[in-house]
C-alpha cells in the first residue's frame, strides 16, 4: 500500500515541478573584452540556455539592440547589428559594432532580464596615428654623434616606441621617449635616438599599440663616411687648384696689361711718326716751291756791273774801301782818258747777310 502511494505521488511531484524548470534558463557564456582599431568592426558573443525569451545588448549602459525568441533581432541603428546561432539547446547572439569610434570605448553588456544574470565585457577602441622621421637619408662622418628624432602624432593611446638597427633591437638606454596630449583625446609621442655610428646602417623606429597586428615603422639610412683623409686630400687639392688658378689668372692679367700698354705706345709712336713725316713733307714741299720760284726769277742774265745802292756810300760800307782799284784794260793815250774820281769797282758778293735782311733783287735783262 505504501509503495503504491509513493508511485502515484512521484509523477505528481514531477508534473508540478516541470513548469518551474521551464523558466530556469541562464547565460552560459558571456562576451569577452575586445580591442579594435577605430573604423573597424567589434564583435561580442552571448550564449544562453534553452527557455530564454528576451536578450538585450547594452553599450555603456544604454540598450543598442534587442533579440527575442519569437521575432529575432530588433535593430534600431545601422551601426549595431547581430547574428544568431543555435547549437542544440543553446542560443548564441553575436553583436557587431560597425565603424567603431574612439567614443565607443566602454562597457558592453548582455542581459536576459533576470537578476544576477548580466554578463559584460569592455570594448577598447584605439587610433593608429602617423609616424615619421624627417630625414630618410643621413650622412655621418667618423666619430660623429648624431641625434635622430622619430615623431608619432594622433595616437590613442600613446604608442610604445622602440628602435632597431639592421634587424637588431637597440638598447633602451640609447633613446628617450616623451609623450604629450593632443587634440580630441589623442596623444603624441617623441623618441630621440643618440648614437655614434661606426658603419652604414638602417635605423628603424617602431610604434606599437595593442590593436595593431604589427608595429608601424619609419626608417632612416645612415651613410657612414670614413674618408676623412680623402676629404682632407680633396680639400688640399681644391686649395691647390684655387692657388694655381689665381696665379694663372694673375699672370694672364699682367700679360694682358703689358700687351695693352705696348699696343698703346705703338699707336702713339705711329701717330707721332706720321705727324712728323707730314711736317717733313710740308717743309720739303715749301722748299721745293721756293726753289722753283728762285729758278724762275733767275732765268735772265745777271748784270755784273750792277752796284747795289747800299754800296755807293763808302762811309756806310767800309768793306768796299779796302778793295784795290781795278786796272783798266783800255788801250790809248793816257792824256785822252778821263779818270773818274770814283773808280769803277765791281764789288764782291756779300756772303754775310743781316739776320733779317730784306730780300731785294735787281735783275737787268739784256
Present the secondary structure layout.
Elements: H1 2-22, E1 27-29, E2 34-37, E3 42-48, E4 54-59, E5 62-68, E6 72-75, E7 80-87, E8 90-97, E9 106-111, E10 119-126, E11 130-133, E12 137-141, E13 146-155, E14 160-165, E15 168-169, E16 175-181, E17 187-195, E18 201-208, E19 216-225, H2 228-297
Parallel strand pairs: 2-10, 12-19
Antiparallel strand pairs: 1-3, 3-8, 4-5, 4-9, 5-6, 7-8, 9-10, 11-13, 13-17, 14-15, 14-18, 16-17, 18-19
How does this structure look, described?
The chain has 366 residues and is α+β, with helices and mostly antiparallel strands. Among the domains are: 24-126, Immunoglobulins (Immunoglobulin-like), CATH 2.60.40; 130-226, Immunoglobulins (Immunoglobulin-like, Sandwich), CATH 2.60.40.10. It contains 2 helices and 19 strands. The strands form 4 sheets. A 6-stranded mixed sheet has the order 2-10-9-4-5-6, with no helix packed on it. The relative contact order is 0.08. The model is unreliable at 1-22 and 314-345 (pLDDT under 50).
